[in-house]
């Protein structure tokens, strides 16, 4: 299996899958899943003629954990290591949910010279937390509940989280029980320390000052029924702060629109990649 060993920490290996040929697209998954979450997008990207690289964030999927390095500087450094060790050029970055943070922080810390374009899908960018100047964010009390649940009963919390991920309710069966079971298995297998520290990162990082660093062509896709990362605090603000963007709203879509609205999302992605 392909792994990249971190140069500054030989104990950490990042697992990745590398398929196809052509211009490289790196897929950065959301929390608390793995690269497997891109299952419905990878075939489409390969058919368009791209080289598709999906990796597992450290502590998730098949990548080994570390004790620290889960702030966005550390995570962007991992992304940079993948790009460097694979000698990738003219890269396209896709960030889903938490993965949008790696995309933006990468451009802040390493520039855009080697980046062709980016996509932010159901992304946390630019801010999750509710503040005086961000009234549409997630209240601190709710974030505290999440952190407490992760520390005291992580496995049970993950079951309910993925129902919210897809807006599953008594009268709303947006995905099958097997899909929920699959996601729960991936998320529960993740390292507990990585799960908690990454949650602290996406909950507490304010990317608003960094939006000016996103100067490449950008696709922003968000569902207007996202109960995890509300569109008003994320997608809409990202579209206001990123200069060169295509902002697409998928009506009725939850956070996990890459599964529930895969056909619509894939069509949007295809248009974005093939347009001039």
Automatic annotation (TrEMBL):
Keyword presence, Hydrolase: yes
Residues of the signal peptide: none
Keywords in alphabetical order: Hydrolase
Keyword Magnesium attached: no
Residue ranges the record marks as coiled coil: none
Pfam family, one: Abhydrolase_1
SUPFAM superfamilies: alpha/beta-Hydrolases
Ranges of residues in domain AB hydrolase-1: 24-261
Domain of life according to the entry: Bacteria
Gene Ontology terms for molecular function: hydrolase activity
PANTHER family linked to this entry: AB HYDROLASE SUPERFAMILY PROTEIN YCLE (PTHR43798:SF31), MONOACYLGLYCEROL LIPASE (PTHR43798)
Protein name as it appears in the record: Alpha/beta hydrolase
